[in-house]
Amino acid sequence: MDHRNAGLSRRRVLIATGASIGLAALTRPAPTGRITRNVSSYAAGVEGCCARAELAEQAVVQRHVRTVWGRPWARLGRLVWPAAVVDQSFVRWCYWWQAQLLDCAVDAAQRGRDPERIGRVSALARGIRTRNLTGWTNRYYDDMGWLAIALERADRLLGVRFGNAVGDLKSALFDGWNPVVGAVPWRMGDDYYNAVAIGPTGIAMARLGEVSRARQLAEFLHTRLRDPATGLILDGVHEPGGQVNPTVLTYCQGVAIGLETELAMRTGDVDHRNRATDLVAATATGLTRAGVIAAAGGNDSGLFMGILARYLAETALALGNTTAARIVHESARAAWDNRAEVQGLPLFGMDWSRPVTVPGTPEAVAQLFPSAVSPSENLSPDLSVQLSGWMLLEADYRLTAAGL
User: Distance (Å, rounded) from C-alpha 20 to C-alpha 27?
Assistant: First the structure.
């Protein structure tokens, strides 16, 4: 399907936003339901995995996904639940979170294709285009890499296409290449070259036929950002100057594993297979706790664990990596067994290895507002955290369905 986007003037956007804020202020729903820990345990098997992924999908869709500015054909995910007025009206939004939401919606449609899920994929993509105002692209290469990946998958797996959206993103990513450094920066005009811009850009390039460019990006990650002591990928480096940020994050490993896996499949080069294998082993050693992916936190970092799980599943499926599959399964079991529930739908914590603590007050959902959240409770109102849980359970399902 080829979905064209109607033009929106800035004046119309401002009017729509103002009306949306006013309506939200008048109709803000009171939080309902209680957080409970009376939950069922993880059960093995394809049927159970499918059911868990569907419940995670329903939780995000029911709590977070709403129409944009009264346009039923455009939807986005509210960044928190329950949502404040600025979130209900999408004054505040996050391009890359929405790209991850779209990618999860593609996962769900691949798991169980039906008109509702296909329509949701279309509406979420239209929502991103609508809210982004100026087109499909922005100034951040990591953002554009994530969206290019999601839209390419929607096209390839579901036949859902949005004009020249993928082409626009591909051109922007390709043009972001700095031949002196040998990579793309975090954002236009920046001197910081980080794994989470380079990795998604490389994956998108590989899937869109630019294998040579993808290999150059993989080489940068391997030679410039890999820590020889741990085998893990560091966050990034400033160029010129060579000042390395030594932070180690789970999603940096995820995108590097994903890129090396893509190249191993597309080139047959054993070096890429070996690099992916080595990264999985280093991740298992350094970034899991009792086999479960290490915790991150709320806000942006809420997505880090799920992104690693996605690409661990990719390398398990493509290269038969049993360590990667085991990490995904153990993490899925822990996240599910440690979840809470609200009205029968899962609420995942920021740390999959610890139970979500149920607040002692009956007004449970109100505890999710950021001002009331304590890290010790393992509670988060953030869409990012719930997307990670959904992403993980979709990965768990794909592996189980494949017999891994």
Answer: 10
First to last CA, the chain: 33
> Mind giving me the DSSP string for 258-319?
HHHHHHHHHH--HHHHHHHHHHHHHHHHHSEETTEEPP--SGGGGGHHHHHHHHHHHHHHHH
Residue 69 lies in a domain: yes
| 10-residue stretch averages of pLDDT, the chain, 404 residues long | 41 48 43 75 95 98 96 95 87 96 98 98 98 97 98 98 97 97 98 98 98 98 98 98 98 98 98 98 98 91 97 98 98 97 95 86 51 65 96 98 98
**Domain carrying residue 58:** 52-351+376-402
pTM: 0.91
- 328: in domain: yes
The CA-atom distances, in angstroms, between 159 and each of 118, 153, 393 are 9, 9, 24
Q: What DSSP string runs through 355-393?
A: PPPPPSSS-TGGGGSGGG--GGGT---BHHHHHHHHHHH
Query: Does 29 map to a domain?
Result: no
Q: How many folded domains does the chain comprise? A: 1
